[in-house]
Design a protein that fits this description.
29% of the residues lie in helices and 10% in strands. It is globular. It has 242 residues and is of the alpha/beta class. It has six helices and six strands. Helix 1 packs across helix 3 and helix 5 packs antiparallel against helix 6. The longest helix has 17 residues.
């Protein structure tokens, strides 16, 4: 009898104010802890830090602990390309990191905290104070954050991986909510609707062919049809519907 494979639960930490909730969570609950940008400051026992190449050096950790690794574009762009490209993934580090983790870590669960992408009109926008909300910039790849999260969830499900969010408040993520201490029993979504929806959305992505292997999709902005992207987003949302 083949031994059952142990779950690989990956915690992905963003920079929203509620990211600090995970500071007290035992490391033993997770196979890997992945921090995005400034989130390496939330807890010291992270395994990978994913940051863009232009992330300010003075905001990077000065010392790495044994086993810790910095992930840059040379790692995450090829990983995102294997799932259709950075543009289709959605140009935020949360989604980019999700696809990289899906490719590099082969998880059974991707659990997101501090990544809900909802920003208060006043007060702190990030756990470290006020910051520039990356997903709110004018970008063709971010017309629907909900659709981009649906796309990630469907791609993950096809790899046998569940996507969940570890928060209960408002969110732009369409992932189901879960508790941080019950992740080993979470299963990915699976339905005939999802499978058919994936194929339909994938065919449309292939037809549009909005891909740039370098990941610098903004250089093709003059070729992108906004209405076509909205129609594509609707296909991904339909594929992820319950």
């Amino acid at each position: 009898m083949t031994p059952k494979k142990s779950p690989c639960v990956v915690l992905i930490i963003g920079s929203a104010p509620d990211a600090v909730r995970c500071q007290s969570w035992p490391k033993s609950l997770f196979s890997k802890i992945v921090a995005i940008n400034n989130a390496w400051r939330v807890r010291t026992d992270w395994d990978q830090l994913v940051a863009p190449d232009d992330f300010p050096p003075d905001r990077m950790p000065s010392v790495l602990r044994p086993g810790q690794r910095i992930v840059r574009s040379k790692d995450y762009v090829p990983a995102n390309n294997r799932f259709g490209g950075v543009f289709y993934a959605g140009g935020t580090m949360a989604f980019t990191t999700g696809y990289w983790a899906l490719d590099a870590l082969r998880p059974s669960v991707l659990a997101f905290v501090g990544c809900d992408m909802v920003y208060a009109g006043s007060g702190n926008t990030h756990f470290y104070g006020k910051g520039a909300p990356d997903p709110l910039r004018d970008d063709f790849s971010l017309r629907s954050l909900e659709a981009k999260s649906a796309r990630l969830m469907v791609h993950a499900a096809r790899q046998g991986c569940a996507c969940v969010r570890l928060s209960t408040g408002p969110s732009r993520l369409v992932f189901p909510t879960a508790g941080h201490d019950g992740l080993h029993g979470v299963a990915p979504m699976a339905s005939a609707t999802m499978r058919a929806g994936f194929e339909a959305a994938k065919r449309e992505e292939d037809r549009l062919d909005y891909r740039v292997s370098s990941g610098r999709y903004w250089e093709m902005s003059d070729q992108i049809n906004a209405e076509a992207i909205d129609a594509l987003d609707a296909l991904w949302l339909a594929a992820a519907a319950p």
